[in-house]
Design brief:
It is an enzyme of class 3 (hydrolase). Pathway: Lipid metabolism; bile acid biosynthesis. Pfam families: CBAH. By secondary structure, the chain is α+β, with helices and mostly antiparallel strands. It has one domain: Penicillin V Acylase, Chain A. Helices cover 16% and strands 32% of the residues. Bound molecules: taurocholic acid. Taurocholic acid binds next to strand 2, strand 5 and strand 6.
């Protein structure tokens, strides 16, 4: 399972991040695509040359991003959506065709705001074309975020769906509107300290903090993680400065992280949070920690060679 969140600090700097929950790593690294990299979209997509920084692998000299952000502060992450995602089997005339594997790169190379992406998506076909035989098409949906808002993009049998994500969270199946509606089941949850009550002659006193959020789901399934991440993200107090906001980002994501042994996949392998990654538009920096190395490491866009035309990995 995967979880993504977005928030802004008091000065409207966006922070965006995700947990990548899976049973194995693909050997992903922090990957920088300079503006002069020769990106050739597979179909008729454009390249407007924004520099891109994120997490991914390089296949056939193409950066395949799991999540990334660009030099304009626009970020995108792909999360599993099997059983619901259904891309077009071939390109469609008179539309902009984007292969599923290049979708995050196409978004980050071309746009400066969520509004611009949402407008462009009105005429986009996402095509089920694998990059090669080794990597089958991944069935995903995406969250796209900037300093103003986030959207969720789902391409299903009924075509393109773009949802305004006013809760700034995404996980996996089912569709975004189901997650959004399910939150109503938890509107009783609240961080306030519960006051003592009387039931008849008995005085009942809380035995500590936390009772008012009783019922918040603690299990790792996708709908429960959505509720938990939404609750944590919405109630975390505003913070000032880079360090406290990066802490906020990683702590919020840790509330929905998967611990090895909690949940097995169909093949019997346990899912775990392989890595947590995040982007600060405040300092244009990517951050990453892994399951085995929880140290949060920083990768500033400025530390890569912007004048090169070569992909750079760290
Ligand atoms: C497995 C990852 C999603 C994690 C997730 O959402 N887990 C949920 C588990 S569950 O189903 O809900 O149980 C996804 C996110 C991004 C994906 C990768 C990116 O899309 C980039 C390429 C795309 C290629 O088509 C396949 C390899 C790949 C390298 C993908 C492998 C895998 O599908 C990734 C890594």
């Amino acid at each position: 399972m995967c979880t993504a969140v977005r928030f802004v600090d008091g000065e409207d700097n966006m922070f965006f991040g995700r947990n990548l929950d899976w049973s194995f790593s693909y050997g992903e690294k922090v990957l920088y695509t300079p503006k002069d990299y020769n990106y050739q979209p597979v179909f008729n997509g454009e390249d407007r040359n924004h520099a891109v920084l994120g997490i991914g692998i390089v296949v056939d000299d193409t950066p395949l991003y799991f999540d990334c952000a660009n030099d304009a502060g626009l970020a995108v992450a792909g999360l599993n959506f099997p059983g619901y995602a259904e891309y077009a089997s071939d390109s469609v005339n008179l539309t902009v065709n984007v292969a599923a594997y290049e979708f995050p790169l196409w978004v980050a190379r071309n746009f400066t705001s969520v509004d611009d992406v949402a407008e462009a998506l009105k005429n986009v076909t996402i095509v089920a074309k694998p990059i090669n035989d080794q990597y089958p098409v991944a069935m995903l949906h995406w969250i796209i975020a900037d300093a103003t808002r986030s959207i969720v993009v789902e391409y299903t049998a009924s075509g393109m769906h773009v949802y305004d994500d006013d809760i700034d969270v995404m996980t996996n199946q089912p569709e975004f509107p189901v997650h959004r509606a399910n939150l109503i089941n938890y509107i009783n949850c609240d961080p306030a300290m519960v006051k003592p009550v009387k039931w008849g002659n008995a005085e009942l006193k809380p035995w500590g903090a936390g009772l008012s959020s009783h019922g918040l789901p603690g299990d790792p399934n996708s709908m429960s993680r959505f509720v938990r991440a939404a609750y944590t993200n919405a109630h975390y107090p505003n913070k000032e400065g880079e360090q406290d906001n990066v802490t906020r980002l990683f702590k919020t994501l840790s509330s929905a992280a998967m611990i090895e042994g909690m949940s097995a996949m169909a093949d019997g392998q346990y899912e775990k949070t392989i890595f947590t990654s995040g982007f600060s538009a405040n300092t244009m920096t990517y951050y990453k920690s892994t399951y085995d190395d929880p140290t949060i490491r920083a990768y500033a866009m400025a530390d890569f060679d912007a004048s090169s035309n070569q992909l750079q990995a760290k």
